[in-house]
């Protein structure tokens, strides 16, 4: 356990910005380009699984998740005007550990009647999540780290790319945080504008949220809720990725990823690749 923890701390320190000494060291250069892989093909939901509360795995109740006009649409028009706490998630069929994921989303239309007030213009990208085959039929959310996506209500500030923790917790500024949700530093996005959120996920060491190219939140040591009175739980090294259905219509036009797993055992090279990736400010076009 100790060697793994030492590597994890060293990796985190490098990504957090510890300067690298170049004199006397031969640090290999990263490849000239790293390419985005499209998780959503723009045509259908091939390679995705659906899990909606109160329904079996892959029962896409009410045609909640669909593809129209090149977007993943989350809709409730076939719910008989009643949401009934049927929270849903669309899971990609492959787990990841070290990666940069980018999504472009927008909120549209009106929330379905009886959707909870907190779910108004609310969705999410779940990372380091549990396997959907292990979820119970009545389970609301997968145990995961939720990158909460919020739209403005038109009457004040409401940040996006926040952090919520169904069945999990994390470390921020050296302290274990047990709050269910914390806000990011993002600005508010009103109306039906497209927004790009990126999430840098580095195994059990570091997660960083970005909105339209700006860093808005970072934290460390994602983990399951502790058991038996322990202060910390089992560290999350990887897991599923899913998109959320929480009662307000939302579109996703892009879901793409850069797999960084091949750099995971080389912190110096990983830092170089991350610096290269984040030197470009990617902003959603409207």
TrEMBL record:
One MF annotation (Gene Ontology) recorded for this entry: hydrolase activity
Pfam family, one: 3keto-disac_hyd
Protein name per UniProt: 3-keto-alpha-glucoside-1,2-lyase/3-keto-2-hydroxy-glucal hydratase domain-containing protein
Highest taxon of the lineage: Bacteria
3-keto-alpha-glucoside-1,2-lyase/3-keto-2-hydroxy-glucal hydratase domain mapped to chain residues: 35-257
InterPro entries, alphabetized: AL/BT2_dom (IPR010496)
């Amino acid at each position: 356990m100790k060697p793994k923890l030492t590597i994890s701390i060293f990796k985190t320190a490098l990504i957090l910005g510890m300067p690298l000494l170049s004199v006397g060291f031969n640090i290999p250069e990263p490849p000239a380009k790293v390419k985005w892989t499209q998780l959503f093909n723009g045509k259908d939901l091939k390679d995705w699984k659906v899990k909606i509360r109160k329904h079996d795995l892959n029962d896409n109740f009410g045609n909640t998740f669909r593809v129209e006009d090149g977007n993943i649409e989350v809709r409730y028009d076939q719910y008989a005007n009643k949401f009934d706490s049927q929270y849903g998630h669309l899971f990609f069929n492959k787990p990841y550990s070290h990666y940069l994921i980018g999504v472009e989303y927008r909120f549209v239309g009106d929330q379905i009647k009886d959707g909870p007030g907190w779910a108004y213009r609310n969705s999410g990208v779940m990372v380091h999540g549990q396997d959907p085959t292990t979820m119970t039929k009545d389970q609301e959310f997968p145990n995961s780290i939720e990158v909460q996506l919020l739209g403005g209500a038109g009457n004040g500030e409401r940040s996006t790319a926040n952090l919520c923790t169904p069945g999990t917790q994390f470390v921020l500024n050296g302290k274990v945080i047990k709050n269910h949700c914390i806000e990011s530093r993002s600005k508010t996005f009103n109306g039906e504008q497209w927004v790009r959120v990126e999430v840098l996920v580095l195994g059990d060491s570091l997660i960083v949220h970005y909105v339209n190219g700006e860093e808005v939140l970072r934290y460390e040591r994602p983990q399951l809720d502790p058991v038996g009175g322990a202060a910390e739980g089992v560290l999350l090294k990887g897991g599923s990725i899913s998109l959320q259905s929480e009662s307000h219509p939302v579109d996703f036009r892009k879901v793409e990823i850069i797999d960084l797993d091949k750099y995971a055992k080389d912190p110096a090279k990983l830092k170089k690749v991350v610096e290269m990736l984040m030197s470009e400010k990617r902003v959603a076009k409207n």
